[in-house]
Design a protein that fits this description.
The protein is mainly α. Helices cover 72% and strands 0% of the residues. The protein starts with a helix and ends with a helix.
Length: 192
């Protein structure tokens, strides 16, 4: 299935799409190259435009700031998805779920779809608040856990909450580390 159809279907018909995804044998490398990378470019390019071209800095756009924010966005998305899927996979047996990294990766990547698509709003700083539509990914993660990880009904909610906390923690830590190394003290001089 191509990227556009998969993104559309996971958003509009998630229950049917999770069932279809569960039957696929897409490798992690293919999933990353054909789905995750292209979608991760959306918020990265939008961050470059929003911070470096249009500008959110007090004195207008700063090209180097835009480049750094794009790098942070892209790397934190890719690493965040990978590390989150790895931890979720390691935790799977604790919730009566199947330990299968490929399935964990599919779960996290496809649940991240609305987050990456909503990243487009970063391009226009005034519309940045609309990125909240990315929270739909929370629902996708919840309904995807049972079919993808074969989680028993009585453990789906707990596994979901733990998985969500893992994703948030991983993303925040990676973003903070990248921000520190790429922006450093400049960050404190930018308007909050």
């Amino acid at each position: 299935m191509n990227l556009v159809d998969r993104a559309k279907n996971i958003i509009l018909k998630p229950k049917d799409e999770w069932t279809l995804i569960d039957q696929e044998d897409t490798s992690v490398a293919t999933l990353v190259a054909t789905y995750l990378f292209p979608l991760a470019l959306i918020p990265a390019i939008a961050a470059f435009i929003g911070y470096g071209v249009i500008g959110v800095a007090f004195f207008g756009p700063i090209l180097s700031w835009g480049i750094k924010m794009a790098i942070i966005s892209f790397i934190s998305t890719i690493l965040g998805v990978y590390i989150s899927a790895l931890i979720i996979d390691i935790l799977a047996p604790n919730f009566g779920s199947v330990k299968d990294f490929r399935k964990s990766m599919q779960l996290v990547v496809y649940a991240f779809t609305p987050v990456m698509l909503a990243g487009v709003f970063t391009a226009i700083p005034a519309l940045g608040i609309l990125g909240i539509v990315g929270l739909y990914g929370l629902y996708l993660l919840y309904i995807g856990i049972k079919p993808m990880m074969k989680t028993p009904d009585d453990k789906v909610t707990v596994y979901y909450v733990v998985s969500l906390l893992v994703i948030i923690a991983v993303y925040v830590i990676i973003s903070a580390i990248l921000t520190f190394f790429l922006i450093g003290k400049t960050y404190s001089m930018m308007p909050q």
